[in-house]
Write a structure and sequence with these properties.
It is built from four helices and no strands. It has about 110 residues and is mostly helical. The chain has two domains: about 10-55, no CATH class; about 60-95. The two termini are about 25 Å apart. Residues about 1-5 have low confidence and may be disordered.
């Protein structure tokens, strides 16, 4: 991603209600959303009062609409095309899935 060819998606964060260490999770989220952490991050900030020099806020780019991302993810053919493009750059997924979750795509 560059300012001339931006991309990405807006992401959300959450603390699960049954988190084993909710106070630690709150501290982490508080830090991640702090001005200090947002300014030091190598990504678009979640805060409107932090700007990346030369870049518009991420939601100003047409390819970052969360509804558009949902629509993209629901279109299996488009997802598979992107997977093919990524595999051309970095190769296919290899090895066992360390999460134990059946992803169904490798």
């Amino acid at each position: 991603m560059t300012p001339n060819r931006p991309g990405g998606c807006l992401l959300t964060g959450a603390i699960l209600k049954d988190a084993p260490h909710p106070d630690a999770a709150k501290l982490y989220m508080s830090y991640r959303l702090s001005r200090q952490a947002q300014e030091a991050s190598a990504q678009w900030p979640a805060r409107r009062d932090v700007r990346v020099p030369g870049w518009e806020p991420i939601d100003q780019y047409p390819n970052t609409d969360p509804r558009g991302f949902r629509d993209f993810m629901l279109d299996r053919a488009r997802v598979e095309r992107l997977r093919g493009i990524m595999e051309d750059f970095i190769g296919p997924v290899q090895g066992d899935n360390p999460t134990g979750v059946d992803r169904g795509w490798h």
